[in-house]
Amino acid sequence: MAERVLAAGSATAADLAERFGVSLMTIHRDLDDLERQGVVRKFRGGVTAQPSAVFESNVQYRLKTMRAAKEAVADHALRSVEPGMAIMLDDSTTALEIARLLRLGKITPLTVVTNFLEAVNLLAGRRGIHLMALGGDYDPLHSSFLGVSCVEAVQALRVDVCFASTSAVHGGYAYHQEQHIVSVKRAMLDSAARRVLLIDHTKLARPALHRVAPLSRFDLLLVDDGASPEALRDLDEHQVRYEVCATKGDDDRAGAT
């Protein structure tokens, strides 16, 4: 059931009951369990895996969304990476696209620091890449390591550039739904000589609960070419330095970090 909701983005209880051949009471009980696990959130008559102002999508859902946009942003981001650098990747699926490109081995030697288990699995053992995995409390919903231990591990390092993403950008600030994610991202920004914000266009002018940092904290914001003129004007009004990245394909499903 979780796989079906994550693949579709949302579903009604009635559709799920019909699909699995069980009663609505059984479906609602199972959906309650999935909500408690943080996989989905319920609304009247169904559930959704899509993000909201206070709910960050499960990593398995985020891995499937806005792939063309994330690939375009990641490809553009690599223009600022040179052999010999130390870079930090946060636990966003946008930064994961950078890891996918790095595993091709075209930019080496390189030191890569990350708290994202997905990125660790991609880069482990790759020739020319010195991989540093940040420890902490493992969070299965984000497939990353978080908490005080992770923050302290980040604070002990200094990297050339940090590539990070957030769930929302609005009014000159970057936002995220979850406070324990925010603390790690802030520490990462503090540890870097240069900071690059990676976002897909669906994150512009949308809300999330916690401020991560003012956009002025970033040296550059990268966004795909699906961004509307109105959203880009808002960035201009806040004097944000940004670059628009050309996509190779269309993907209209709303993304998360």
From TrEMBL:
Pfam families: DeoRC, HTH_DeoR. The keyword DNA-binding applies. PROSITE patterns: HTH_DEOR_2 (PS51000). GO terms for molecular function: DNA binding. InterPro entries: Carb_Metab_HTH_regulators (IPR050313), DeoR-like_C (IPR014036), DeoR_HTH (IPR001034), NagB/RpiA_transferase-like (IPR037171), WH-like_DNA-bd_sf (IPR036388), WH_DNA-bd_sf (IPR036390). It comes from the Bacteria. Keywords: DNA-binding, Transcription, Transcription regulation. Residues 1-49 form the HTH deoR-type domain. The keyword DNA-binding applies. This is DeoR/GlpR family DNA-binding transcription regulator. It comes from Streptomyces doudnae.
